[in-house]
Structures are given as structure tokens and as C-alpha cells.
Design brief:
By secondary structure, this protein is of the alpha/beta class. It has one domain: Leucine Aminopeptidase, subunit E, domain 1, CATH 3.40.220.10. It has a five-stranded mixed β-sheet with strand order 2-3-1-4-5, sandwiched between helices. The longest helix is centred in the middle third of the chain and has 17 residues.
Length: about 110
């Protein structure tokens, strides 16, 4: 199972799900977006640790969904990206995953 977590574009996985991904799922410090170890970094903050716009996050979610579609042999456990340290509500983020393929396990209610 690939752990999908909210990150920052600098790849400083120091708090929350990002720290968990680094400690337990092989997320590589310095990789802010994409597959790394047994995890997938989905940036919700920029390289200065400022929250990214919903449109910017949506573009990253779309790239993730393409990756998941192109890798049907992998299973993805998606966390509530953007709903912790980035400060968005689930209602802001969950619609971005409406086209996620069946190999994505989404948070309950998404």
C-alpha cells in the first residue's frame, strides 16, 4: 500500500502525515511531489511553507490521479491531504478526488 500524504514543495517532511511518511513509508527528505519510497507526496504547501491555492493543489491531485491510473497494480491509501497543517476543510479537498480510480482508498466520506 502506497501512503499518500500532504507535503510541501521543498520536501521537508517534518510534521504530521509527512513526518509519518518519512519515518514509516520511505518518503525522501527533499522530494516534495510524487512517488518516493512507499509513499506519494502531494504538496499542499509551497517551498516557503505557505499554503498553496486550491487550484494549485488540484493540479497536483490531477497528477496523482494520472499516476494511480497508470499504476493499477499499486494500491494507494490517501490521507486527508490539505486538511491538517494546510488548513483546508474536507469539503474543499474531497471533491478533487472524485475521479480517483478504484486502487485509491480514500478517507471515509470522501
Amino acid at each position: 500500500m502506497v501512503f499518500v500524504f500532504g507535503s510541501n514543495q521543498a520536501g521537508r517532511h517534518g510534521k504530521g502525515a509527512a513526518l509519518y511518511a518519512r519515518q514509516y513509508h520511505g518518503a525522501v527528505y527533499g522530494v516534495g511531489e510524487g512517488i518516493t519510497g512507499n509513499s506519494y507526496a502531494l504538496p499542499t504547501k509551497d517551498k516557503y511553507m505557505k499554503t498553496r491555492s486550491l487550484n494549485s493543489i488540484k493540479r497536483s491531485v490531477d497528477r496523482f490521479i494520472r499516476y494511480a491510473n497508470n499504476n493499477p497494480d499499486l494500491q494507494f491509501e490517501v490521507t486527508k491531504v490539505g486538511c491538517g497543517l494546510a488548513g483546508y476543510n474536507e469539503e474543499d479537498i474531497s471533491p478533487m478526488f472524485k475521479d480517483a480510480p478504484s486502487n485509491c482508498v480514500l478517507p471515509e466520506g470522501w
